[in-house]
Specification:
Length: about 250
């Protein structure tokens, strides 16, 4: 006898988003520090132009600041259906950053002196509330960077903006357990990471890989409450396959 190899395929339909826009390759850069540089009204015409990614290894003074100002138009096609917001990816920054969007602080990674903590290898991913966005108009991303010693700068991407989707709010895990009579049990678990209720549908199918044949398929609903309440996870695809054999 020969066992049939099976595979589980899952298609998730949860109003996810795939559209994104890259940040401009050029930005404005200036060494120094001034809180006015976060303002969209500030005139940076005399600043030097800088292309991503880059790192400055010839900084004259340790314990230095510099600012990047990135201007871009965000199309209204990136609006989410429920106003969740946008995800800003700024890659890796050496060492500490504070990031502003249209003049307002939206995130920071690392810690400035006197409690200095470097995070030069951490990916920067920040949320932009949709009510801050000037749709189909120019917006400003201002990045304030502090470096204690050595090189500094936005040294590795990715650099892009995309809508927040379900994958940012729900974690997915799975387990497969072999049971008696040449069978197995599979469980796919969706856990809510936010306090916002979540619902969607999951379509799955079981296939015989060797014979390229779909054994069966089904679609199930998934609903969870917020993470602070009971019912914040949803177990799906709990099924068993028995005696899948061929001679």
């Amino acid at each position: 006898m020969k066992l049939v190899k099976t595979a589980v395929f899952i298609l998730i339909s949860l109003n996810g988003f795939s559209q994104s826009i890259p940040l401009p390759k050029e930005s404005k850069l200036k060494f120094g520090d001034d809180p006015e540089w976060a303002s969209p009204a500030f005139n940076d015409r005399e600043w030097q132009t800088q292309i991503f990614p880059n790192s400055f290894n010839d900084v004259k003074n340790d314990s230095s600041f510099c600012w990047y100002r990135i201007k871009l138009t965000i199309p209204s096609t990136l609006k989410t259906n429920n106003g969740k917001g946008l995800k800003l990816r700024l890659g890796k920054i050496d060492d500490v950053d504070q990031t502003y969007f249209n003049g307002k602080l939206i995130g920071e990674t690392g810690s400035l002196p006197p409690n200095y903590v470097t995070q030069c290898s951490e990916q920067r991913v920040y949320t932009i509330p949709e009510n801050m966005v000037q749709w189909d108009k120019e917006n400003l991303i201002a990045v304030r960077i502090y470096n204690l010693i050595g090189g500094m700068g936005m040294w590795e991407g990715p650099y892009r903006i995309e809508p927040l989707g379900w994958i940012d709010e729900v974690s997915v895990s799975h387990s497969f357990m072999e049971t008696a009579k040449n069978s197995f049990t599979a469980i796919i678990t969706f856990a809510n990471k936010t306090d916002i209720a979540f619902s969607g549908t999951v379509k799955y199918w079981i296939a015989d890989k060797a014979n390229k044949k779909i054994l069966f398929t089904d679609t199930k609903k998934c609903t969870t409450t917020g993470k602070s309440r009971r019912g914040n996870s949803c177990d799906l695809l709990k099924f068993q396959i028995f005696d899948r054999k061929c001679i």
